[in-house]
From TrEMBL, chains A, B:
Protein's UniProt keywords contain Transferase: yes
GO molecular function: glutathione transferase activity
Organism (species): Cephalotus follicularis
Leading EC class: transferase
Protein name: glutathione transferase
Pfam family name, one: GST_N
A Gene Ontology BP annotation from the UniProt entry: glutathione metabolic process
């Protein structure tokens, strides 16, 4: 097609991973540009002057920002394979609702787990598990959130999976016992090449969290 | 069409107003049900068990939640007139970006203006004006955000206009001088019947803010 596709991204960004998965699902070839978030590139500042954040997808010179907006754009432009959003308006609204829930609840719940200690951490852990239990219930016995095939909500949520080892090891919050269906779902997603190749290793994330925790609280 | 459409709403909800405007633009007849947010109805709790918030659109018994998701749903279902989102995927992504900016920045900036005093209020006012200046620049010389016709971004932003009198009178923040194009745009939108009939009077909002301010800080 002669399309020029560039992704400005950062390896451990949950939001960047969503875009990587969407591009992989659609089989779109692109140039990946890793950003140094401590020293953002002139290209990032030019392409996302409002938020100055990754990910940014640059398609034939034009920028698209905000991960879920980028994923919807990818789904609309490369629409000949792997539909991510359902075609029915009601189901589409439901998919958008759950992706929005993930952005509003799951991201914050995870951020609160590791940087706390003692009672504060206990309260955060409880909230964390409750947020995931809601998703476990929504998933139910379906193989994917979208039903029989991997879709928009799966893609919005699965990047959090690479943080689970860090949550479990450092925060002592294991979702294995609390949300077994969700863990089975995550493992199912990880068997897809589009997902596996878009997510960093759980231990690499763990190493990063350990380092951040030491910087914040000193050694154990 | 025999559609049953019910809107669970609350008169001064910015988010509810968006849905009212979208329904008016499409000419959809619906039953408006005012919620008492201090004593939420069993119907609201049943229809939005996750967030328990208005607005909720109930279409033939099925609930759709979150204002921008509802508006997209309305645009997709009643698609024979007044398209709200652009048909081009890139323009649609841009419209979604600005509606998201409004949700992330404009709402918070407004909430910070009136409940503060002294220096804190001055800092909030500066931020408030900056947030709107970004929108003023995006609007430029176009009659509407979407171009020649009223659309998704216009609909996402215009409900804030009914708070402007309160901001100006209580917060002493006037956007008239700072963002003249935006004020002209707002007045243009208010000439549309779909908008005018969906927004409460500015003075009714002012009365409410005055009351809240007294409750929080006592009399002047």
């Amino acid at each position: 097609m002669g399309d020029e596709v560039i992704l400005l991204d950062f390896w451990r960004s949950i939001f960047g991973m969503r875009v990587r998965i969407a591009l992989a699902e659609k089989g779109v070839k692109y140039e990946y540009k890793e950003e140094d978030l401590g020293n953002k590139s002139p290209l990032l500042l030019e392409m996302n002057p409002i938020h100055k954040k990754i990910p940014v997808l640059i398609h034939n010179g034009k920028p698209i920002c905000e991960s879920l907006i980028i994923v919807q754009y990818i789904d609309e432009v490369w629409n000949s394979k792997s539909a991510l959003l359902p075609s029915d308006p009601y189901e589409r609204a439901q998919a958008r609702f759950w992706a929005d829930y993930i952005d509003k609840k799951v991201y914050d719940a995870g951020r609160k787990v590791w940087p706390r200690k003692g009672d504060e951490m206990e309260a955060s852990k409880k909230e964390f598990i409750e947020v995931y239990k809601v998703l476990e219930e929504e998933l139910g016995d379906k193989p994917y959130f979208g039903g029989e095939t991997f879709g928009y909500v799966d893609l919005a949520l699965i990047p959090f999976y690479c943080w689970f080892y860090a949550y479990g090891t450092i925060g002592n919050v294991s979702l294995e016992a609390e949300c077994p269906k969700l863990i089975a779902w995550a493992k199912r997603c990880m068997q897809k090449e589009s997902v596996a190749k878009s997510l960093p290793d759980q231990r690499k994330i763990y190493g990063y969290v350990l380092e951040m925790k030491k910087k914040r609280f000193g050694s154990e």
